[in-house]
Request: fold
Amino acid sequence: MVEQERQQRETLRAKVKKLKCGLQEHAEKRGKSGKPRKSNLTDTKSAKMKRAHGVMQGYDGVAVGDTKQQVIVHAEAFGPPQAHELLEPLGQGTRENFQALGAQGDSFEKTKLTADAGFHTAKNMQRLFEEGSDGYGADILCRKRDPRLAAAARYKPQEDKMAERFTPKDFLYDSQTLTCRCPAGKRLYLKPRHLVIRGYQAVCFLGAKCDCGPCELGSRCLKNPRQSTTRQVYFFAGRSPQVAETFTAKMTRKIDSLTGRYIYGQRLGTVEPVFANLRRTLGLNRFMLRGKRTVNGQWLLYCVVHNLLKIHRYSSGFA
Reply:
């Protein structure tokens, strides 16, 4: 027993020594907000990545492709797990690649840029507008606002429908009389009228405790019945004229237009086949190396093979 405790103490001392050496050799990683990030001593440039089967330590392989032939024009493996931090370096890398080929001016001046919701932040949308790029950055609610997908809910399994929580659409709201009734038929109280939430005019209604407490639909109406005893529901009536339109709102209006829906709809056929070919055909399902430099080299090697196959297939048409 004494020998086991001694070995355990030695093991712990060795781990502490390794941690102290790692902190001295490598600078502390910090995110965009300035807060420190967790680091891995084996590979300090890697980050925790969310997968379908959990979280793993690794890198994010990102690529930029063209619409016509799905040729990769820029690619890089990154350590930061959030995709919204990668839009700026991807754009800059693409510009540098075209400048190295002899292209004059900004390569995005006559090009449309589409990016999925992972790249959407207010700062990134501001950058797209200020740079003059014709960019289309989707947000997380882009698909829900798409009228073509309005009937998608009817195809959900019946048991999932029963478990869904009530949304403002389930409440009977009259904008003329400013009255509202909940799905159980109870009347809600009107809160102060002049509300502005994120630049939008809103009307808020609040349920009574005597109605919400014993209600049988509370599990579907209240997010946490143990903590919240009444339901609040908001109805929005457009942007407030007193608040300037944000860059996120500008992008929402742009991408919800008929032209924006058409252009952004092409993203699925532009870049997704690239990743499908890299993973399914070329067999790159995981990075097999460590370190930012070697992982990036492996990622670029597979991207080069992808482009060579494209050149082999389509070069005869341009000869």
Summary: The first helix runs from residue 2 to 25. The chain has three domains: 1-36, 47-145+256-318, 157-243.
